[in-house]
Recover the amino acids of this structure.
């Protein structure tokens, strides 16, 4: 069962890499809040396991208020940042609806 979860998370990171190459990633406090509140139909937020508790609680609270799905990953912030080709990324949103659909199918 643990191996299955690991494969799912690797798929999610792959989708995230595609989104980054297509420039369909949102990050940063202001960017994420605007994204969560936006009128885009499909949304998803990815939260690495070592994200600070204040940031994590704030993002989860906003996701719950605006009914946005979020995924708490077993990967670290540095794993996520490496996938995106960035540094110091703790939470990301994806704006491409096809990639979001793929991620949401992966976790079901």
């Amino acid at each position: 069962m643990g191996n299955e979860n690991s494969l799912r998370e690797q798929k999610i990171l792959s989708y995230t890499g595609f989104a980054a190459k297509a420039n369909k990633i949102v990050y940063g406090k202001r960017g994420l809040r605007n994204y969560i509140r936006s009128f885009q139909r499909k949304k998803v937020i990815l939260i690495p396991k070592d994200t600070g508790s204040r940031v994590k609680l704030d993002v989860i609270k906003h996701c719950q208020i605006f009914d946005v799905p979020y995924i708490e990953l077993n990967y670290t912030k540095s794993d996520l940042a490496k996938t995106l080709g960035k540094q110091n990324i703790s939470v990301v949103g994806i704006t491409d609806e096809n990639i979001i659909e793929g991620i949401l199918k992966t976790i079901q």
Remarks:
- The mean pLDDT is 89.
